[in-house]
Structure formats: C-alpha cells, structure tokens
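User: Hey, quick favor. My workstation is busy. Could you predict this chain's structure for me?
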Amino acid sequence: MIVVPAIDLLDGKVVRLKQGDYTKSSVYGDDPLELANKLEHQGFRHLHLVDLSGAREGKIIHGDLVKKITKETKLMVDFGGGIRSDADVEWLLDAGVNQINCGSIAVKEPETVIGWLQRFGPDKIMLSADAKNNKVAVSGWTESTAMTISELIKKFLPYGLQYVTCTDIGRDGMLTGPAMDWYRALLAEFDGLKLIASGGIRSAEDLIGLRAGGLYGAVTGKALLEGQINADELKELSLLW
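Assistant: No problem, here it is.
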C-alpha cells in the first residue's frame, strides 16, 4: 500500500480544514514547496496536492506552486481542485503532474471526464469521490448531491477507471479513524479497483488496518503534519520504502 501525504493549498498557504469547512481552517505553513521538499527527504514518494482555492472558485489558482513542486522534487503528484477543461489537464500533465484527480467535474460533467479517460488514459485520470453520509459532495465540499459513491464510480468503470480517492468528509481533519467498513464494502463491490482511503487517519495502526483491508493507498494529512504519524515509524512497518 502506498502512503500519500497531503498538501492542501489555500491562499498560498498549507492548511487543513475540518470536515471540509473553509471557515474552520488551520494553517501549517506558508511555504508549500519547503514542505514538499521535506516530505521527499523523509522518504515519501507520492504527494496528494489539493488546490482548495481552485475547488471553491472553479479554476486552478495555485498553478505556479504546482509547477515548482513538480520541477523541484521527484514526488509523484496527483492534483485536484478547479480542473475544468482539456487545456487544464494538458497544462497539468505538461507541468509534471502524474495524475489528475477529478472531483466536481465528474459529477457535473461526466462526459468530460469520460473523454479524459479515453484521451489521456486511465493511468492519468483519478476519480475523487468525496462523500458525507455516503452522498457525494462537490465544489470544495460546499454542495451536496443525492448521488452515492457507488453510483458515481459506476459511471466511469466502462471507460477504464482504475483509481479512486475516496474521502469521508465527516472524518476529514478530525483524527477519528478511517471509515474501514465503508472501504471494505466498496472493495467488495468493485473488485480490482485501486482504492485510496482519505479522511480520519490518525496513526500508523490505522494505516496497517487499511493495508490489511486491501486498500491500494491511503492519504494522510493532519496526523502527519502534527507528528502523530512519522516517516521513521512508517519505514519500520514497511509502509514507506
């Protein structure tokens, strides 16, 4: 299982939100590139990079920061937030982003994401399936829908979808533990899906449980930033190599 540290960008700063609430943000630094370099030095190989400003405003806001991180580190970056057009995807891939994380647009314009899967390939397009009470939320989690995560995933499977980052919004930033039963149910329903857990992860023990449950990956944000998870511990547990 891959462990993926998260850097959430808001107004140029590294932040974490509580349950996706923009009014409940904690700032962890004003130099995202410095943090990315630190993570790489610690041995991490992947990075989940989220443009919260872009998700809220419907366009990529932190493009310059994205390019700096991809050019000055060797981290394999998946990026989400404000992606709306073919030109956005092309620009991000040209800038060195490894995978595009599609959230709101997958709900509002599924045909566009289907086109991206066909044009750029399933290895480059990742579905960001974020939910509260199993109902998908979009626009930086500020809008709720009536769609379930399963219904969203099914829209894209016929077109080669392989990667899904699945966030339990109610647990995000709360350090209450991951929604293990939810992930098990999704893996049972979608055999072979490369599912990446996000939300609530608080310890290395949580990561061990997710690995045992068959998760392809897990995103850790607040616990890593606050030192509840550290790279040395992950190396000892063969969760980081």
